[in-house]
UniProtKB/TrEMBL annotation:
The gene is yqgI. Belongs to the binding-protein-dependent transport system permease family. CysTW subfamily. Residues 62-280 form the ABC transmembrane type-1 domain. The lineage of its organism: Bacteria, Bacillati, Bacillota, Bacilli, Bacillales. It holds the Pfam family BPD_transp_1. This is Phosphate transport system permease protein PstA.
Length: 295
């Protein structure tokens, strides 16, 4: 009887904690939407931002956020998955492996402002990339790489050993087993790490202040050459993202509608993060079916 009471109390406590977390998230997102969605219009989404005139939009900042996300994930995803595969399947338990794990843990605990200062000193000044999308993407790669490495390693280790042994029993090699057996089984966990990293890219501002910059040229969406200064695809131009724009509007903007612009920008940012997460999970489910051979 005592064990049953304890079990019920633990179940109730865990359910209350889960409900509390969901309630906090719903309240936070609901408040952001309540404050900002009323100011979001098509004109706001397609107009160039302004720190001096009323009625500015977020067209360039919205594009910069997505473009920076794509460039960052191109760098982060293959490196992080490869690192997780190495630590899980190839690395031997020795001092070198322990040193690598310590480096990953230290990188994961670094504040974003420190990564931003490092990016400014190395990528902006030493490599002479300037305040650019490339500098910001590489800095965010350093910032997000430990997350995908650890998530990939844990996801691969959580795959039942019987699957690996069955594959080896058929006489196939280690890489074939990793590619066709372990990765499809561990894909949901790896996808969760990728989504978490992408969400951090969307919301990051401290590291981008020192690497991508606080300004953005008026983008010419008719010129998609990556070598033009005002081209949307130019990786060496400065790029104020949506999260940095929210900070800028709340600190240095002198327009009368700064609170409304900041609230609308925050609502758009939260909305696109939710849409991205749901879309990524749907795409991940489809990819997992393809990788596992299900129709």
């Amino acid at each position: 009887m005592k064990s049953q009471i304890t079990n019920r109390m633990a179940t109730v406590l865990i359910s209350v904690c889960a409900g509390l977390m969901a309630l906090i998230m719903i309240a936070l997102v609901g408040y952001i939407f309540y404050q900002g969605l009323g100011h979001v219009t098509w004109h706001f989404l397609t107009t160039v931002a302004s720190t001096f005139q009323v009625g500015g939009g977020i067209k360039d900042q919205l594009w910069n956020s997505f473009y920076l996300l794509i460039v960052t994930m191109i760098f982060t995803t293959p490196l992080g998955i490869a690192g997780g595969i190495y630590l899980s399947e190839y690395a031997k338990p020795n001092r070198v492996t322990g040193f690598i794990r310590s480096c990953v843990e230290v990188l994961a605990s670094l504040p974003s402002i420190v990564v931003g200062l490092f990016g400014m000193l190395v990528f902006v000044n030493t490599f002479h990339w300037g305040y650019s999308i490339l500098s910001g993407a590489v800095a965010l790669t350093i910032f997000n790489l430990p997350v995908i490495v650890r998530v990939t390693e844990d996801a691969l280790r959580s795959v039942p050993v019987a699957l690996k042994e069955a594959s080896f029993g058929l006489g196939v090699g280690q890489w074939y087993t990793i590619k066709n057996v372990l990765l499809p089984a561990a894909f949901p966990g790896i996808l969760t790490g990728i989504i978490l990293s992408a969400g951090r890219v969307f919301g990051e501002s401290a590291a981008l202040l020192f690497t991508a910059g606080l300004t953005s040229p008026d983008l010419d969406f008719k010129n998609w050459s990556p070598f033009a200064f005002d081209s949307p695809l130019n990786p060496l131009r400065s790029a104020e993202t949506l999260s940095v724009h929210i900070y800028s509007v709340n600190t240095v903007a002198i327009v009368k509608d700064a609170p409304q612009v900041a609230a609308a920008s925050a609502a758009v940012l939260a909305l696109f993060v939710l849409i991205f997460n749901l879309s990524a999970r749907g795409l991940g489910a489809w990819i997992q079916k393809r990788m596992s051979g299900k129709s």
